[in-house]
Amino acid sequence: MKPIGKAGKNIIKLLCLLLAVGILWFNGKSFSYATEEHHLQTGENEVSTTVDPAGTYDDPEDLNTLNTLNRVTLEYESDNGSLNGALRILITLTLIAIAPTLIIMMTSFTRIIIVLHFTRAALNTQTAPPNQILLGLALILTFFIMQPTITKINETAVKPYEAGEIETTEFIELAMVPLREFMYPQTQLKDVQLFMQIADLEWDGSLETIPTSVLVPSFMISELRTAFWIGFMIYIPFIIIDMVVASTLMSMGMMMLPPTTISMPFKILLFVLADGWALIIGQVVQTFY
User: Fold this and answer.
1) Closest Cα to residue 108, out of 156, 149, 154, 152?
2) How far apart are CA 237 and CA 214, in angstroms?
3) pLDDT, tens digit, for every residue of 213-270?
4) Res 89: pLDDT
5) What digits encode the pLDDT tens for the residues 145-187?
């Protein structure tokens, strides 16, 4: 194969230049065509859908006739409150983002999920039931327990706020009242006194004088203490089964056989015969009433 000479290289450069000029000309022509025909809607219909320039309308009914192909419109039913519709949507999305934290800190979720975890550990079934089922069950039970509180928040805070009868500050204060009334009976006195001493605050023993910043951590510590105490009570019958099985295996000279392997079927049998799930869940739910 012969190498390309100088003349051949010049011809190749010329062809490349002509190709580049053709591409630029074609793109410019296409852009001009698109600019001239920008008012036409894509598809077979060649009738323009643009009534007015973007963003111009006289009343809300005219908004539906505008060409909103490249525009997102958010419409709110009423604007009677102190915040407009867009800002309310932003606040709603923020509350959804912090909802898991609120569920863990200010509801019955913590006690329920810890008790369910201790139940599974006492049965020694490893991952049965799996974490997803335990979390789902805990959320459902939390909603069941918190339903009166949620209803009260909706009646006393959400509906007046949506109607524009109260301001944002009043809405937050009214929404916190049912939650505080739920947390206070479940909070132990010594936990409240501990955080009041840390914060160097005086307390006369009433709910009204407890700041929310003190009530929430006191409630969480009380929930952890109660949940661990319930877990200890759940462990007792299963520990007895382990001890009986281990003593039986040692008396039979089968010391190389792991006692947990033999005791697990008996634990499951005892749990099923005693209707353990209904018994444990029912007792845990009743602790909040």
Assistant:
1) 149
2) 37
3) 889 999 999 999 999 999 999 999 888 888 888 888 888 877 777 777 788 888 888 8
4) 76
5) 999 999 999 898 888 887 778 887 888 888 888 998 999 899 9
Q: 231, 223 in Cβ contact below 8 A?
A: no
Nearest to 79 by CA among 101, 60, 53, 98: 60
